[in-house]
Design brief:
- With 324 residues, the chain is an all-alpha fold.
- The chain is built from 13 helices and no strands.
- Helix 1 packs parallel to helix 7, helix 3 crosses helix 4 and helix 4 runs antiparallel to helix 11.
- The termini are far apart.
- The C terminus is likely disordered.
Length: 324
């Protein structure tokens, strides 16, 4: 059965919405768009589309081969599309979490995070090397279950379309019931942030419930506004450096690593891992932030309870809870 690619039909809407957001930014806050950054994002999106045309057929062929060994014969009734959409989103969560925790997958995914601006053009900032990084393997189990590759391609396209609109600062918060179940601009802003509080959080594609189920949810806070980009910023608008810088970094690290175990570590361990512990991972950065927050809280409590004059005693009521 042949199904249309929904992303192709959504592209004109993507462009119109980017232009509309640019007008809003021009009226409210011109810093939300930087022309060179936007051009880099759009160019990366175009390159990703070309790469998809070149290798997409191969990924589909692999999924079709796996489908021959399916466990069940799943039909084309509408409810199977709904079920496939939900399971596919769970598979996306697994991929997305791995893309932040395994450097090989991160080398491809980092492109999407490399902008220091957060707007709808950032949504189009996509990888050129998704097939090379083997990211399609995360959806192969669905074909083995019995979902036809054409159905998976269709629901995956809907998933991608949904994720477009959440790349914006124009929308603050959605209604509470929506924020509780669905991925939103607020949740995804936290995901794109480099603040220690938000690192490696909110991996959801469509349903934020996966993050809440698996302990990776962090709510955006007004007292800690997101700062965007990557921990070590690109420092360049060069298109090819944006597309390949992490692959180059992996190659250099593997080449210089002392021994096979270290070489494998620079591929399979989290971004920032080093064989001698000289670099920082997101987890070590978060731990330092927690330690600093605990120290500030302890200092605040001790200061609160310290007598302020010779006649004043310790306030036994305790210190007020510090914002953290």
């Amino acid at each position: 059965m042949h199904l249309p690619d929904p992303v192709q039909y959504a592209v004109p809407a993507f462009i119109l919405l980017v232009l509309a957001e640019m007008l809003v930014a021009w009226a409210r806050d011109k810093s939300r768009y930087e022309p060179r950054d936007t051009l880099t994002s759009l160019s990366l999106g175009l390159g990703s589309t070309v790469a998809g045309v070149i290798v997409g057929g191969t990924a589909y062929a692999i999924a079709s081969w796996a489908w021959q060994f399916r466990l069940f014969d799943i039909g084309w009734q509408w409810y199977w599309f709904v079920i496939a959409f939900v399971i596919d989103d769970l598979a996306y969560y697994a991929f997305h979490r791995s893309a932040h925790r395994v450097r090989w997958f991160w080398a491809s995914h980092v492109i999407h995070h490399s902008s220091q601006h957060y707007n709808l053009s950032t949504a189009l900032r996509q990888t050129w090397t998704g097939f090379f990084s083997l990211s399609f393997l995360f959806r192969l189990p669905l074909a083995l279950i019995g979902f036809h590759p054409a159905m998976l391609l269709f629901v995956g396209g809907i998933n991608l379309i949904y994720q477009f609109w959440i790349h914006t600062e124009v929308i603050d918060r959605m209604p509470r019931w929506f924020e509780a179940v669905m991925n939103t601009p607020s949740h995804h802003r936290a995901h794109h942030a480099t603040n220690p509080r938000y690192l490696d959080s909110n991996y959801a594609g469509v349903f934020i419930i996966w993050d809440k189920m698996f302990g990776s949810f962090v709510a955006e806070r007004d007292d800690d506004r997101p700062r965007y980009g990557i921990v070590r910023q690109l420092g360049s608008f060069n298109l090819f450096w944006a597309a390949f810088h992490e692959w180059i970094g992996i190659a250099k690290d593997v080449w210089a690593a002392p021994g096979l175990r270290a070489k494998i570590g620079y591929i399979a361990m989290p971004p920032g891992w080093s064989h001698d512990g000289s670099r920082e991972t997101s987890e070590s950065i978060k731990q330092q932030w927690r330690n600093q927050a605990a120290s500030r809280q302890k200092l605040g409590e001790e200061t609160w309870k310290k007598p302020i004059s010779s006649s004043s005693g310790v306030d036994q009521a305790g210190a007020p809870s510090p914002a953290g």
